[in-house]
Design goal:
By secondary structure, this protein is α+β, with helices and mostly antiparallel strands. It contains six helices and nine strands; from the N terminus they run ββαβββββββααααα.
Length: 231
């Protein structure tokens, strides 16, 4: 299924089902919000969040956007549905959005809007082998609980707070773990839940091993992060 979406480049990755608060202050994105809020009530107020791969946005002479060589975006993003809007007297907006659907950008569209617009393919949410997904989810959930324990330096009561549905868990782990933007982007772009969970199993094993080794170091962690003396 194809769609045309306004695009919002960000230095982060949005996942389906996850909340993303946004403070909108640039004129072009104020226009984007106003355009969405002016849609008929029965239409979904969605825009595409795409992570920035390189470069930066360049304002054009009329508040537009030059995408060209100055801005490189990842192909796979996630739509953000506006759930709450607070407009400030000076025209700024505070939004509460929720990730809804993954998409792959086919091409950017030239038009009169001051923000980026793209033709996209909306992606499904295939699970893969369902029995394998369930087994992987059990392993990833256990690793994620160990990871949270090490991050918080104490045993948290998180067992009943984490989802056990493979797809939901895979996105929660991807969004919550302290991963690089590149790792998160690869997880978002995974073909199915099984592949995402497999990748997370590897990433969490790595992170748990590193955190366990840090805890075994006798020096306080604060000393490990202090800059070295120039003398």
């Amino acid at each position: 299924m194809t769609a045309r979406l306004p695009l919002f480049p960000l230095g982060t990755v949005l996942f389906p089902g996850l909340v993303l608060p946004l403070h909108i202050f640039e004129p072009r994105y104020r226009t984007l919000v106003r355009d969405l809020m002016n849609l008929p009530a029965d239409q979904s107020r969605e825009f595409g969040v795409v992570a920035i791969k390189g470069g930066w946005e360049v304002p054009a002479n009329a508040g537009g956007l030059t995408a060209g060589g100055s801005l490189t975006l990842y192909e796979v993003g996630c739509t953000a549905e506006i759930r709450q809007v607070t407009e400030h007297p000076d025209g700024r907006f505070d939004l509460v959005t929720v990730g809804r659907r993954r998409f792959r950008t086919r091409e950017l569209v030239d038009g009169s809007a001051p923000y980026l617009v793209g033709d996209v393919d909306l992606l499904g949410e295939p699970t893969g082998d369902e029995l394998l997904a369930e087994r992987l989810a059990t392993t990833v959930l256990d690793l994620f609980q160990k990871y949270l324990t090490l991050m918080r330096q104490q045993r948290p009561e998180v067992g009943e707070q984490l989802p056990d549905r493979p797809g939901v868990l895979s996105y929660l782990v991807a969004a919550s773990a302290a991963l690089s933007l590149e790792d998160r982007q690869r997880l978002l772009a995974s073909d199915d839940t099984v592949r995402r969970l497999r990748a997370e199993r590897t990433l969490l094993r790595r992170e748990v091993t590193l955190l366990s080794r840090l805890r075994a170091v006798p020096a306080p962690l604060g000393e490990l992060t202090s800059p070295a003396s120039p003398n």
